[in-house]
Amino acid sequence: MTVFGYGFTGVSFFFVLSGFVLTWSHRPDVHPGQFYRNRVARIWPLHVLTMVVSIWVPAFSLMASPSWTAAPFVLTLTQAWIPASPFLYSFNGVSWSLSCEAFFYLLFPLLFRRIAIHIRVARIAGIIIVALVISVIWLSVYASIPTADYVLGNMPLYRLGEFVLGMCLATAMKRGWRPRFQLLHAVGLTALATMGLFAASLILNGMSGPVPVVFANLVMIPGFLALIASSASRDLSGSGGIMASRTLVRLGQWSFGLYIVHELVIKLAKPFLNDLPPGDAFAVAVLVVAVSITLSGLLHEFIEKPAEWWLRSRGGSKKTLPASPLEVHHSKD
Question: How far is CA 112 from CA 106, 171, 224, in A?
Fold first, then answer.
């Protein structure tokens, strides 16, 4: 847990990447209604399936059973809008982030039009970064800990800033901007930020826990933007290298399935980790990763793709969206 203590910052990466991919692949002539249908087709089938599966997970693990009162909110992806709610992590806990994504999708057509006509997207990005920093400082000083944790951690309105940063980056690159740094530099920046967080943990609490989520996310966002920009630039230049390999592209296609199923696999594995020596615990962790990746591939091929195709065909669109940033410039919405 010490090594992977900052894994939660991956949600920020997911939000930034989502804004980037949607903006890059979106066509202005796509009607908002069609966009919304495509988004429902993309995320809702696996969300509903894993929500149903999560009902039986507590029977095989040490986790508490989900609250049925939460079902309507989780099903409609509105659970992240309820402050101090026990619903936030009910059923498949990671779906709280899909609640944020649903809000982003709702606003996307309007945001896309507004950003597209703005001359200086860098100014928009700068305003957002300043607003995020001010929000973190103000709420950390003046709000209660539960309020700050909710607003800065789970509230869709605050997390919208990360999504819009991805939109701004994609808009800038569509207009011809390219980063002057290489992917290796972006990886180094991200690694440096991560090491800084570990150092802060050591200084502040002796590594007994990570730096608060909101501060960690802010520290990592520049690295995430750099990673996405440099990876997309390499792909556009035709020098994607290993990032464009068939294996990694396939894993990118499975990434949503991996995200949506991994917590359920972890919950099932937790009872077997009690009192295990480090070597055996590591072996179980490796098995969890392998099982999660395998399930994500099966879900993508036999549930996600067929369900998305069927739902899109009901609305007159059968084309699927790119599943990874390496596919972004090869297809359009």
Answer: 11, 9, 21
